[in-house]
Amino acid sequence: MDRRKFVSALGLGLGGVALAGCGQDNGNNAQSGEAAGAAQADTAAKKPAKTLEWKLVTAWPKNYPGLGTGANRFAERVTAMSGGRLTVKVYGAGELVPAMGVFDAVRDGSADMGHSASYYWKGKHPATPFFTAVPFGLTAQEINSWMNFGGGQELWDELYGGFGIKPLPCGNSGTQMGGWFRKEINSLADIKGLKIRAPGLAGEIMQRIGATPVQMPGGEVFTSMQTGALDAADWVGPYNDLAFGLHKVADYYYYPGWAEPGAMLEMMINKEKWESLPDDLQEIVKNAAEAENQHIYDEFTARNAEALKQLVDEHGTQLRRFPDEVLMKLHETSEQVIQDLVAGNDQARRIYESYRDFRDSVVPYVAVAEQSALNVRSMVLGQKTS
């Protein structure tokens, strides 16, 4: 019994009844009331606050290695760290919306979150590719640095905020491969006329040097290569390419990954839903995305190494390096494409200039420290790549 209510009851002349009914003195009743109050408070503390259930749609097949499993792990992290206050259910490509419908689903609120790659949305705004990968641009480590210390996140928030979306980095596949080809590429002439799956800026670059780019979700690549609808395809790298069985439909595997030196993945959140979250749940979502951003990169580094060895040693995949003539033309054309991309759009140009300036600032250090160390390591270990 609460002490104040007990005293009030005495004042109304009910004290004798109350005491007789309880069979306790005033002090014991007060202690009992306090204990009951404490028990109720403890029960209330253990009971979850209002729970939220969010839908997360992805551009990947359900449970696809690295990409799909990363989205699943993110959802599990959020649910666990929030103590169930925010639970996230993952839908693979095609389950709730098509792979290329993720952006619109998050924007209009039919999904609360989306896991994808920003360069898929170049048709929405010309600056989106800078937040996945740019040909001859930043590596995974460098793009993380740009996001956190070079103003990249603020620019991304501004860009996606205009669409009602809050973006966060959530994974990186690392340096990708140059793609699968059904015939050898010995010169620029061999590129002409090729039907190639090439996303983002790479598709436009390939078009300008004579290829025919085709945009399609990853889940359609194998069949398209098998039927001849595609002559070549840039998907991701050994880990994912082996999972899709692309070695069964093309003999030649080209490097370097000029188009995607570090491909960052995104976690999109409907901005209205994001702003409705209490501060602690926002921090949980941020930390879950940050943890998954590193986890996916680590996973790809390990699994790509294993898969490449398997592709070459067990499946007879023919590794090839793009000829210098082709690489130089790709670089020259990429510079033209990027300039055309940002022309006439002030926001796109500001983002490009930030990206370019950060790249230029880190290149000298990377060349002296990391590039030279890698070159020496290859020399002493006798590892040849060309």
What does this structure look like?
The protein is α/β, with parallel strands linked by helices. Helices cover 52% and strands 13% of the residues. The chain contains 14 helices and eleven strands. It has helices at residues 3-11, 15-22, 26-46, 68-81, 102-108, 140-149, 152-161, 200-208, 221-227, 238-244, 271-276, 279-315, 324-342, 346-381; strands at 52-58, 86-91, 113-116, 165-172, 179-181, 195-197, 212-214, 232-233, 252-255, 264-270, 318-321. The strands form two sheets. A six-stranded mixed beta sheet has the order 7-6-8-5-9-11. Strands 2-1-3-10-4 form a five-stranded mixed beta sheet, with helices on both faces. Strand 1, helix 4 and strand 2 (86-91) form a beta-alpha-beta unit. Helix 8 crosses helix 13. The chain is globular, with a radius of gyration of 28 Å.
Q: How does the SSE layout of this entry go?
A:
Layout: H1 3-11, H2 15-22, H3 26-46, E1 52-58, H4 68-81, E2 86-91, H5 102-108, E3 113-116, H6 140-149, H7 152-161, E4 165-172, E5 179-181, E6 195-197, H8 200-208, E7 212-214, H9 221-227, E8 232-233, H10 238-244, E9 252-255, E10 264-270, H11 271-276, H12 279-315, E11 318-321, H13 324-342, H14 346-381
Parallel strand pairs: 1-2, 1-3, 6-7, 6-8, 9-11
Antiparallel strand pairs: 3-10, 4-10, 5-8, 5-9
Helix pairs in contact: 4-12, 7-14, 8-13, 10-12
